[in-house]
Amino acid sequence: MSEKQPDVIIIGGGAAGLSAAQYAARAGLETHLFEEMAPGGLLLNIDILENYPGYDKPISGFELADNFSKQAEQFGVVIHYGGIESLKRNDEGYFVVTSDDGIFTVPAVILATGAKRRELGAPGEIEYQGKGVSYCATCDGPFFKGKRMLVVGGGDSACTEALFLSKLSDQIVIIHRKDRFRAQRSLANNVEHNKNIETRFMHTVNEIKGDGKKVTSVSLHDSANNRDYEEAFDAVFVFIGSDPRVDLVPDVELDDAGYIVTDELMRTSIPGLFAVGDVRNTPFRQVVTSAADGAVAAHAANEYIDELRGQAYV
Ligand code: NAP
Question: pTM (2 decimals)?
Fold first, then answer.
């Protein structure tokens, strides 16, 4: 296999990775991006985005992903459609990246591998995705203004998103499988004292039901009283955590939830390795925050590469 030596490799082609690629290439770095599927990442799951800055009319996630990708390529980013086998740092501080398209040696790598959101696995969940079942309150909540919405989960995300939804409707029910929230106390308190939110502990989802076009009801299990019942809902928001994709970098520092720890320049505990978007420990996971992460990481990587090469020439 031939060895290639671009300036930076970006792993993952969602909003964070494509933004990092665009900024890196525009700054004059030879930039290669690897994406196993189509560029866009989670953007491709978003039907309509109303909150991406600069668009006065809603834009589909697919269209925005396509714009990100075309813009990156216009600045000279080379996109590889394939996987990365391994990522190792050699004694000179360079990364050796073994991919389906060959072996690359680079001074800096930006990891934008994202996180795989957890699904309930309940019947009806897949069938009604985009028809009432959602994993993003900011994206989809406004479509259910004034409607009856069920939130599933007990962590910070479920509580934060339930509070967001409580501004849109006074008919929010949050269920959690345990007898108390896992979320930070302040968030949990705000949920439990919110007049628009009804909290039900010791509850799980049996099945999400609908008329084929939209969610109409949910079958719930109340484990405290060992009973099942069905209740009408227009939407189900699932926030039961996600699993960041960090397999390529087993030695990097992670937080308690398994996300990569970064500083404000997106630097990880490994010099030359930057992490952006949903794979890192960020308080707000949005397309716009991912894109911003990418810009910051590209800028920081550029400075890091200058320093590394400067040192090598001394
Ligand atoms: P999380 O902390 O992992 O919480 C996931 C919740 O879902 C837990 O309550 C868990 O229940 C429940 N759950 C997991 N699998 C389930 C299943 N199959 N069925 C029903 N319930 C299930 O995830 P997160 O809330 O997305 O937070 C992820 C990270 O982002 C955390 O570090 C969090 O602090 C951070 N975050 C911070 C903020 C903020 O600071 N404002 C906002 C959002 C996220 P158990 O409790 O029983 O395990």
Answer: 0.77
